[in-house]
Structure formats: structure tokens, C-alpha cells
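so my prof wants the structure for this chain in the C-alpha cells format not the other one, which i didnt know existed until like an hour ago. anyway here's the sequence
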Amino acid sequence: MITADQFMDAASAAGFDFYTGVPCSYLTPLINGVLSNRALRYVGAASEGEAVAIAAGAWLAGRRTVTMCQNSGLGNMVNPLTSLNAPFRIPTLLVTTWRGRPGEPDEPQHVVMGEITHDLLSLMRIPHRAFPNDAAAIAPALAEAAGAMDAGSLPFAFVMAKGDVADTALDQPARALPGPGRRADHRTRRARPARAAVLERFLALTDDATAVIATTGKAGRELFTLADRDQHLYQVGSMGGASGMALGVALNTPRRVVVIDGDGAALMKLGTLATIGAEAPVNLIHLLLDNGVHDSTGGQATVSASVDFAGVALACGYRYAAACDDLAGFDRAWRDAATIGGPAMIHMRIAPGSMATLGRPTVSPDVVARRFRAFLAA
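here's what i got, hopefully its the right format
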């Protein structure tokens, strides 16, 4: 058994300084230690998949990350670990617990995952080992993990058993409640513009210092077709993860960060709006292009017609939220968001459909990630 301080001190010496995740009773001592350590940053995620996306964004901004979860949460992580971290070659130190360990009594919902935890990590091609539960083993284990992550640019996992870390008291600072945000309604309820028209206007309004993360599907494809820039990251896969990635970036850079989201993607990870509101990055603008359909898969309707995304964002703690459905309204919303500061939501309703000649990014995801990381560091 080790103490949380012993692990955190060794991890900090190895460069790990950004933590995110979802709690587990086995993880409680370590999470309590991180939350109580004012030198470290911990972002509590609404879901394990969201935590992976947040850590990916923090890595893009130059941090070495630790992502923590119960092994049941590995199920929520499968998609981003395989369709975000793998193609973009983004590492993180994954600390997962081993609930349902064979031969160890546990709740019935943990039995299957306990039996397959190591197999699941292997299937995802994530190298793993037992969590270091002896003080002398911590530094070598972290060196092994860091070496593997540096060599392969992929996650490495520690599997934590019950009692690996001694009980740790929680000294978590109280979180200040946000004041009421400002709302604007610029809707005309007339014909809506195409996505490409909004992206063209966005490109005209933004500057060369702004970091832009575009959600998977046609938003990223159209942005690439209109203008390919080092400041753009085109998410592929990991649907719903773009806003979490943008949060991880925004918390670790002074640059303005814009996430170009879609209604289907935002609905898939709606809890991320609450995480963004709680973390309150003043440099984040959330541009949600809502065409009411899953455009990439044939135009099946989403449920966004009945969703007030601007209202949801304000309820989650955003400082500003606007609803608009034409380019003039978008112009006003962008000006206000840039002036007031974030987190800001621009809910832009657009027409279904896409550009007639729509290409796909010809730059591989790992190259996109590294040029974006270099852009942030410049």
C-alpha cells in the first residue's frame, strides 16, 4: 500500500500534472489527494469518455495527463480510446480500478467487467500493468509508462486493486457558483443558411491566433475544404468529444478556443456542457451548428428541434448564450461572445445538407494533432 502523496510526488517528477476522470471507491484516496493538492489540476468529468476527450485536449496544449476511472467506465471509454487517441496518436496515463476481480467478492454488476478488464485493455492495444502499490515501485512503473507513451504516442494503463492506496482525507476548495449568464435571441425564423455559409463567415471573423476544433462529420470536412490551417483540428470518430477536447485545450492555453459542434454530437455528450460551465474557461466559444439531422448518415432527424441549447448552456453556467438562424444574427452573437468572454454558446440553426463538392481531410489525424499542438505552443 502507498499513499496518494507518494504517487503524486513521483508522477509530478515524471511530468504528469493534469488529472481528469470519474470517481470510483477504489480511486477515492488518489482522487482526494489530487483534489487536495493545489499544485495539480483535476477536472471532474460527467462521463469517462468525456474525461478521455478532456485529457486529449490537455495533451494537445502541452500537458502530460492522467485519466482515472472505474473499470466499468472502460466501456464508456472504448470509443474515444480507439477512435480519438489511436488515430491521433494521443497518449494518456490511464488509471483504471479492478472491481469484480475474480475471487474477490463484489457487486454483481462488476462481475463481467472484472473478468475481462485486462482482456479489454489488450483488445484496445493499450499496454498495461498493475498499479504500483509499493513505494519503491512507483518511479520505475511511471518510467515504464512514460517510456511506452513516448515511444508509441498511445495510452498506457495502470490497473488498481482494492487497497493499493491508503485512505486520504479530502480538502477540496468550494466551487463558486456562477452568476446568471446573459442571453440573446437573434432568430428571424426565416430561411436558414447552409453550414458552408456560416463557416465562411466564421473564417472571415476569426483570427490567425484562434484554435479551432471541429466535430466529426461534415462540419470538419467542410471546414477543411474551405480552409486548411494549422490552427484547425478536424476530429474524426469519438462523436460528441469535440467539446471536451476544446475544454482541455482552453484550460491550458491563453488563446481563444472555438469548438464547432453539431446537434447530434452535442446531444451525445450533453453532460460536457455542465463540465464546461463549472470549469468556466473565459477563452472558450462553443459554436453549435444545428441542422436537426444526422447529415453524414443520410439525414435522419435528431431531437434538436425541441432542445433550447442556449438555455441549456446558461443553466450549466455559461456566461453568454445566443440563438440565431441567419448570418446577421451570427455576426451579432459572435461579436458579443468575443466581447463578453466565455464560456459562450452560439446556437446557430442551419439548413440540412452540405457542399456539393465535399472533400475529406487529406492530412492524417496524427499529423493534424501534432501541427495543432505546435500551433498552440508557438
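also thought this was worth mentioning. The radius of gyration is 21 Å.
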